[in-house]
Write a structure and sequence with these properties.
Layout lengths: L10 E7 L6 E6 L2 H10 L13 E8 L2 H12 L3 H11 L7 H12 L5 H11 L1
Antiparallel strand pairs: 1-2, 1-3
């Protein structure tokens, strides 16, 4: 008897803009940090250097792939004013959210060993 495990991957819907907020790009990805790194590595892929998409101003995390795709299609049809209203509802000052994501990712990757446990390890190995 075989058992199938279905792993639900997180999906992110995001809006990224340039420094002058001229362009609002809606995207869908499974790894937001990696996607943002791609945008920074390829600054003139979509636009010239003055219109680099480098500021993450909005994102949603959705645990179901089908729901994420439906939400992406829905948000993609928004007008600019609708997107701006959605961004201002959670990020009124249009702050770049990339810094917070990188900080959180660094916290998750870091392993934590209690000091008392670490000293016991040194005593055993010495």
């Amino acid at each position: 008897m075989t058992t199938k495990y279905y792993y639900q991957m997180k999906r992110f819907i995001y809006i990224i803009t340039d420094r002058n907020r001229n362009n609002l790009h809606v995207g869908l990805c499974s790894d937001l940090v990696k996607t943002l790194k791609f945008y920074s590595d390829m600054p003139s892929l979509f636009f010239d250097n003055a219109q680099q998409l480098n500021r993450l101003v909005y994102f949603e995390e959705i645990n179901n792939e089908e729901m994420a795709m439906e939400r992406f299609k829905f948000v993609s049809t928004f007008t600019r004013s609708q997107k701006e209203k959605m961004i201002r509802s959670v990020n009124a000052d249009w702050v770049d959210l990339t810094i917070g994501l990188k900080y959180e990712q660094g916290m998750r990757v870091r392993t934590y060993v209690r000091p008392s446990f670490a000293s016991r390890l040194q005593q055993v190995t010495v």
